[in-house]
């Protein structure tokens, strides 16, 4: 009997405590008078991430009893789309035994949360998600964040965008030369675009003309793409087990592989830093890696001098922390946007024709396409990126918490016509539902359609500019906004436009028709695959191998 008590008592106590916390949080949420979704566990429970797959059956319980399950994953907004918001309104509260989280797709509230970075900071433990190599730009608040930002800023100057353009065009040419003869599955396109984006990033950001991303150099056991790819695929496991020291023989094979990938990627970063130090002084432009290595050397100099003035420096850990985060943020997002854009274009031939008109008017007949002359005129190509990110953006949640009790506007009714304010306490999490905000009827009746034309306004003289349509106070935040706006915004735009312009000027993209399949059925199949998105570090398709695209030479 005693043994049974000893086993079950801790569980009973834990269960009672969680029930008590749920009740306390529920009462606090009720006072705000906004819709509530009750969750027995939340994505703040690290142990739940491991157990969650075992409970998938919960979703199929009758009377909506298992509805909570969908909200327990950090990436739930990606799959949710407009479902929750259209049912219960633009602002609601996720109530769990951990912290309450206010979720909002209401533009004035979203603006307040992300513009006021002094009040709404990146909270623990979310800010440390990508710190297993060290603190970095994405894990800091306040002055430390400013320091990291100032150091990395010069690498994103307009002057460097010419290199992004040239490198992207060259890599697109290589990708096409390698063969678009047969139909390409969307899964294959994703891996091709990942490689392309990594090449562009390592050339422009890290100053390396790196043709060895997919070969294993001496002293390594994995290629760079294998190491980074494995870490990204298993990032949640990597985060949970980052600090645990267990001998290799006792680890399950996936953790052993992960450990290898993490140490291999560290080695690649160390080699890149060494390479950069040897190259120092050669070349006129500031690469991202160059800027970071200089700041790291400044730190060492200051330490050796015992100086107290430390305004522009990066420690060793911060150098590697930033290198990892830029590697991660710089290729996954852009590769994803290109992978989504192509099937959307394939299923919307009239959009392709519209883009082709622009390409015929702007691109010269020669293969030498100059950045400064060409890029600003490719407004329709850029609009394709804006629309792709509106419908299939890579970000699921950017969680924040106020440092003090703060008022936030919420809509009074479903339609957001009238506003009141509610008080958000410091222990509460807040975050935008970017997917619902970008697909909201505020964008018009066609908000769920792929229609890049919505981002182009035409002046009386026929000239076109990229404009965020005013809609019914619609808000666009694919790269977030100032001050924590994505530093790679222009980088990703130039890369996307260069690649898409290169492909569309040479090929027409069509849904591949399986034998006996009609054009309409093939298009519907691609559209069906596009509808099934999920989140793992960025937005992915559940069945990318189930649809193929044909590249028809123009
Ligand atoms: C389509 C492509 C991209 C999208 C949609 C995107 C989106 C975003 C968003 C929404 C944030 C804000 C995150 C936050 O508030 O915590 C962000 C931050 C960031 N992005 Fe991007 N990004 C893209 C491409 C890039 C590229 C190409 C790079 C680098 C070359 C990059 C590097 C970063 C970094 C380092 C941060 C953290 C910034 C900070 O905390 O100050 N991103 N990105």
Automatic annotation (TrEMBL):
Instruction: Check the record and name the Gene3D superfamilies matching this protein.
Output: Cytochrome P450
Q: Where is the signal peptide?
A: none
Pfam (any one)? p450
Q: What highest taxon heads this organism's lineage?
A: Eukaryota
Cite the InterPro entries for this sequence.
Answer: Cyt_P450, Cyt_P450_E_grp-I, Cyt_P450_sf, Cytochrome_P450_monoxygenase
Q: What is the official name of this protein in its record? A: Cytochrome P450
Query: According to the entry, what is the taxonomic lineage of the organism?
Result: Eukaryota, Fungi, Dikarya, Ascomycota, Pezizomycotina
């Amino acid at each position: 009997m005693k043994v049974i008590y000893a086993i079950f008592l801790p569980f009973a106590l834990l269960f009672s405590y969680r029930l008590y916390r749920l009740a306390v949080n529920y009462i606090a949420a009720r006072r705000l008078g906004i819709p509530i979704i009750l969750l027995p566990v939340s994505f703040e429970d690290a142990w739940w991430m491991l157990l969650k797959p075992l409970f998938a059956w919960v979703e199929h319980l009758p009377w909506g009893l298992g509805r909570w399950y969908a909200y327990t994953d950090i990436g739930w907004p990606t799959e949710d789309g407009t479902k929750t918001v259209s049912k219960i309104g633009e602002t609601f509260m996720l109530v769990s035994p951990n912290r309450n989280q206010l979720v909002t797709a209401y533009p004035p509230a979203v603006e307040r949360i992300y513009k006021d970075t002094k009040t709404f900071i990146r909270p623990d433990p979310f800010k440390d998600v990508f710190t297993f190599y060290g603190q970095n730009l994405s894990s800091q608040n306040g002055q430390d964040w400013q320091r990291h930002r100032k150091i990395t800023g010069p690498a994103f100057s307009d002057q460097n965008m010419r290199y992004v353009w040239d490198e992207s065009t060259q890599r697109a040419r290589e990708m096409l030369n390698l063969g678009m003869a047969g139909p390409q599955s969307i899964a294959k396109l994703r891996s091709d675009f990942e490689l392309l984006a990594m090449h562009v990033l390592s050339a422009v950001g890290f100053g390396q003309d790196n043709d060895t991303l997919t070969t294993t150099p001496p002293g390594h056991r994995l290629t760079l793409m294998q190491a980074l790819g494995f870490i990204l695929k298993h990032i949640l496991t990597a985060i949970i087990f980052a600090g645990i020291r267990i001998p290799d023989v006792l680890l399950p094979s996936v953790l052993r592989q992960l450990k290898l990938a993490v140490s291999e990627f560290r080695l690649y970063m160390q080699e890149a830093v060494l390479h950069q130090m040897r190259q120092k002084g050669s070349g006129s432009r500031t690469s991202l890696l160059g800027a970071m290595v200089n700041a790291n050397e400044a730190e060492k100099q200051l330490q050796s001098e015992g100086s107290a003035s430390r305004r522009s420096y990066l420690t060793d850990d911060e150098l590697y922390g930033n290198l990892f985060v830029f590697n991660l943020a710089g290729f996954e997002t852009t590769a994803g946007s290109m992978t989504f854009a192509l099937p959307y274009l394939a299923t919307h031939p009239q959009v392709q024709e519209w883009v082709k008109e622009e390409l015929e008017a702007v691109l010269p007949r020669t293969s030498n396409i100059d950045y400064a002359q060409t890029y600003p005129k490719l407004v329709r190509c850029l609009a394709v990126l804006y629309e792709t990110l509106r419908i299939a953006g890579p970000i699921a949640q950017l969680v924040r918490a106020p440092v003090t009790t703060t008022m936030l506007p919420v809509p009074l009714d479903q339609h957001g016509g009238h506003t009141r304010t509610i008080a958000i306490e410091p222990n509460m999490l807040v975050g935008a539902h970017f997917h619902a905000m970008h697909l909201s009827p505020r964008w018009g009746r066609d908000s769920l359609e792929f229609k890049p034309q919505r981002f182009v306004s035409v002046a009386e003289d026929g000239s076109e500019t990229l404009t965020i349509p005013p809609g019914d106070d619609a808000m666009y935040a694919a790269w977030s906004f100032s001050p924590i706006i994505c530093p790679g915004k222009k980088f990703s735009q130039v890369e996307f436009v260069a690649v898409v312009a290169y492909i569309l000027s040479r090929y027409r993209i069509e849904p591949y028709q399986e034998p006996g399949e009609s054009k309409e059925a093939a298009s519907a199949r691609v559209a069906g695959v596009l509808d099934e998105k999920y989140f793992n570090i960025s937005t992915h398709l559940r069945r990318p191998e189930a649809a193929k695209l044909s590249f028809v030479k123009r």
